Write the structure tokens for this entry.
Amino acid sequence: MTALAPTAMSTPVITIREEIPFDVAAREALLDAALGTERFAKTAERLRDGRLPAEGLSLVASADGRLIGSVRLWNIAAGRGRPALLLGPLAVDAGFRCCGVGGELMRHALAEAEARGHGAVLLVGDAPYYRRFGFSAERTAALRLPGPYARERFLARELVGGALAGAHGLVSATGRRLSRPPARRFRALAGNDTRLASHAA
Ligand SMILES: CC(C)(COP(=O)(O)OP(=O)(O)OC[C@H]1O[C@@H](n2cnc3c(N)ncnc32)[C@H](O)[C@@H]1OP(=O)(O)O)[C@@H](O)C(=O)NCCC(=O)NCCS
């Protein structure tokens, strides 16, 4: 867990830590508010649906104990036989934007991914935002996602030099599968099973 230094007496203490089951409802509310329920229709969701996030790579930001930010990464193959991660969604509570929380979540997520031996991270998002973390469309030109997307928003960053050299073909999900069928997962979202619900978004 990392605490961001407060800048004034009244400034809340913001911490970045790994997500726990208790965070699920607040994380889902945050994502609904930031991205709307149409997030479930995005092509990137096809790579997350029915899967667990990558081990140790679900992070939250909290301000005096309240969840104000979330980012998760997912195991994928960037073309046949090339393990990588998909980052997203990344979201910060509207009341806490533009004060560095998104950047801290990104830096922690990328550092943790690197520490865990991952070679590359892909995402679909705004290049003007993600470029500051080293993402570009350079390494995704020969890759394709399983659905519609804007080519200029399909970005990647290598954590290990050359990890995406020559990468081509379809990006596919490789993460651990949820062990229960969808109907059970919806019940979990209603609050009966926080372990499953934590991975259902
Ligand atoms: C994108 C988001 C996570 C950034 O969080 P944040 O805590 O405000 O980020 P930071 O404080 O680290 O960075 C803020 C900077 O990023 C810029 N920025 C924010 N969103 C941007 C975007 N979509 N495109 C370009 N720049 C953007 C801000 O203008 C600000 O610039 P500055 O540093 O020059 O002032 C947040 O705006 C958010 O939750 N947006 C809605 C959800 C979303 O779009 N998520 C990304 C898609 S997965």
